[in-house]
Write a structure and sequence with these properties.
FAD/NAD(P)-binding domain; 5-stranded parallel β-sheet; 2 domains; alpha/beta; single chain
């Protein structure tokens, strides 16, 4: 009888794990569950924000997933019992041989008082579309982009957004009428890569974008349009925030976060296994020592696939999670930079930077094409 692997969440990590198991273990039944009906690359939200692409344009329907041995089911997860590997959804009840939790992170905008009333975000497709419509009517004033909590998905994203915003306003002929500010509690944009941070800080300075690191925004005053920081207040006409991240409620209720830092799922950093037999966590929901980004979830999927294979074949597991990932960074004007990070393979993290170019923009586009083909069996449109 075939063993069953149940994967909760069809993002970067879940899709990559399903693909790897499909490729290497023909004697498995892989069930992939997500409450959404399609996948969207995180960087496609910037396309919705700054180009004419619609949410539907960037969505890849899960119905296109045709991997052998992989069954996708659109269901909402209602409970997880990690001790017994029992998962209940709005349609069924599961108790697989292996359970992999790849549910990502949810957002908690209400954690920053005033943000839900007077702020915008681009970390959801709907949020990006809403902000796009607001920008269309914006003609002058101050735009503040604030990182409201750490950690958050895709650390370069706030800086990509303001560089693309600059280009957008230049194209509209109103850049001189707009002040752009970035406020972050972090000491630099990408602390693990001083080269990348320097490039982003230089790019912002060249575009007259004001950058305030090591500054925490505590709340917004919707009536006065003021952002209250730990030292002062910042007036704004448009506030864009990166909301606080947290695990989905169903994970919080499962007890899986016990022992994890700041409410994330505790895992063995070498294998991504939890303390419960046959249960793993990968991606944004896991308390692994890497940034929250799809490429690290993709790398984690390879580790979990190898660990499952070793158990099924009765062979030693010698590999360990490397925490490697390539991040493409939009600098505007059709140019893209790249940071190639390795957090766990060596004695300390390394993250060399390659400066922005149109060649890297082509490479980023090819990255999306190859992932779509690998996961869904067809090319990106």
């Amino acid at each position: 009888m075939k063993k069953t692997v149940l994967i909760l969440g069809a993002g970067f990590g879940g899709l990559e794990l399903a693909a790897q198991l499909s490729d290497t273990l023909a004697d498995l039944h892989v069930i992939l569950i997500d409450h959404n009906d399609g996948f969207t690359f995180g960087f496609s939200k910037l396309d919705v924000l700054f180009t004419n692409r619609t949410p539907e344009d960037v969505r890849i329907p899960y119905a296109e997933l045709t991997r052998p041995g992989v069954e996708f089911r659109q269901e909402r997860i209602t409970s997880i019992d990690p001790a017994t590997r029992r998962v209940v959804t709005d349609q069924s009840d599961y108790q697989p041989d292996f359970l992999v939790i790849a549910l990502g992170a949810d957002y908690e905008p209400e954690a920053t008082p005033g943000f839900t009333e007077d702020g915008y975000d681009f970390y959801t497709v709907d949020g990006a579309a809403r902000l796009r419509d607001r920008l269309a009517e914006f003609t002058s004033g101050t735009i503040v982009l604030g990182v409201l909590s750490v950690p958050f998905k895709c650390p370069p994203a706030p800086y990509e957004a303001v560089l693309l915003l600059h280009a957008h306003l230049v194209e509209r002929g109103i850049r001189d009428a707009v002040t752009i500010k970035v406020i972050s509690p972090m000491p630099s944009p990408i602390p693990v890569s001083p080269e990348t941070s320097e490039a982003l800080i230089t790019a912002m300075a060249e575009r007259c974008i004001i950058y305030r690191p090591e500054t925490k925004i505590h709340s917004l005053d919707p009536n006065q349009h003021l952002a209250h920081t730990d030292t002062d207040t910042e007036p704004y006409d448009l506030f864009i925030g990166i909301p606080k991240h947290r695990v989905p409620d169903v994970i919080d209720a499962s007890g899986l976060t016990a022992g994890g830092n700041d409410g994330w799922i505790a895992v063995d950093p070498a294998t991504l296994a939890t303390k419960h037999a046959g249960v793993y966590a990968i991606g944004d929901c896991a308390d692994a020592p890497v940034p929250r980004a799809g490429v690290y979830a993709e790398d984690a999927a390879g580790t979990v696939a190898a660990h499952i294979a070793a158990q099924l074949h009765g062979t030693p597991f010698t590999a360990k999670y490397s925490g490697r990932g390539v991040c493409y960074i939009e600098f505007g004007d059709g140019r893209v930079g790249k940071v190639d990070a390795d957090f766990l393979s060596g004695s300390k993290p390394t993250a060399p930077f390659i400066g922005p170019s149109t060649d890297l923009a082509d490479e980023k586009a090819e990255f999306a094409v190859t992932r779509r083909h690998r996961w869904f069996g067809r090319s990106a449109s």
